[in-house]
TrEMBL record:
It comes from Ectopseudomonas oleovorans. Pfam families: PepSY_2. It comes from the Bacteria. This is PepSY domain-containing protein. Residues 2-78 form the PepSY domain. InterPro entries: PepSY (IPR025711).
Length: 91
């Protein structure tokens, strides 16, 4: 299982999002406002080396989130929290 987590982390480290100039990106403040309207509480925001918006936080039902977004079209690229929940549990 640790190998799966390591592979998952390595794959995410290579996640590429925006190749466009930053002038084409949705501004961080606008992105945060859009997430707030969707009921997302952001506890941590960062721009990854692959030019993704990465957020940590909670959805309106209180579920933990860790999602990578393309900053141009603001579509989810990777949902880390859901992917980890789908991993088989150790007996």
């Amino acid at each position: 299982m640790l190998a799966l987590l390591a592979l998952s982390s390595a794959a995410l480290a290579d996640t590429d999002c925006a190749r466009q100039d930053r002038s084409a990106w949705m501004p961080e403040s606008q992105f945060r406002e859009q997430m707030k309207r969707q009921g997302v509480q952001i506890t941590k925001f960062r721009i990854t080396p692959g030019n993704c918006y990465e957020i940590y936080g909670f959805d309106r039902e209180g579920r933990k989130l860790e999602i990578y977004y393309d900053p141009v079209d603001v579509q989810p690229v990777e949902d880390v929290a859901s992917a980890q929940l789908a991993l088989p549990r150790h007996p």
